[in-house]
Amino acid sequence: MEEKAETTxxxxxxxxxxxxxNELTLEMFLFNKNYTPYEVKLSKSLEAQARTLFxxxxxxxxxxxxxxxxxxxDFELSEAExxxxxxxxxEKVGRAETLLYLIEKERxxxxxxxxxxxxxxxxxxxxxxxxxxxxxxxxxxxxxQQSNVLPGAVSWQxxxxxxxxxxx
Length: 168
Known about the structure:
Blueprint (H helix, E strand, L loop, with lengths): L9 H10 L5 E8 L4 E6 L1 H24 L3 E4 L9 E4 L6 H12 L5 E2 L10 E9 L5 E7 L12 E4 L2 E4 L3
Parallel strand pairs: 2-5, 2-9, 3-4
Antiparallel strand pairs: 1-2, 1-6, 6-7, 8-9
Helix pairs in contact: 1-2
């Protein structure tokens, strides 16, 4: 008999994560167009900015949605609608499943990203592994659009193998 995976209650998740948001541990990975992950150190000075960009904005959106009647529906069965959060199982996103497998099961084989050895223009996205104090973790991914890779007030730079705030 096949077991059905338990669906996460996103509203409970957001509420619980909001309570420990300053205690979260972040690990940063870049991945290229072949979905090869690279580990990147996150500088202490950039950690608060990354926490806001990858976690707090997401938690706040879900918490705000809970108050405005946001509903959660399966991606495969829904149209784009207002105030609807679409979800899918990671098994239905083959590349994501492979990427997570490499990070979780073959971590020792993941190279440290270095600007001298790798080309940032080939990077497709950023993946942040967020670990709560109780040991539970989740991932947040964002695409990197090369047309937006420009210096600015909230830009980041890669110095050797560490990601830090941009310094002109």
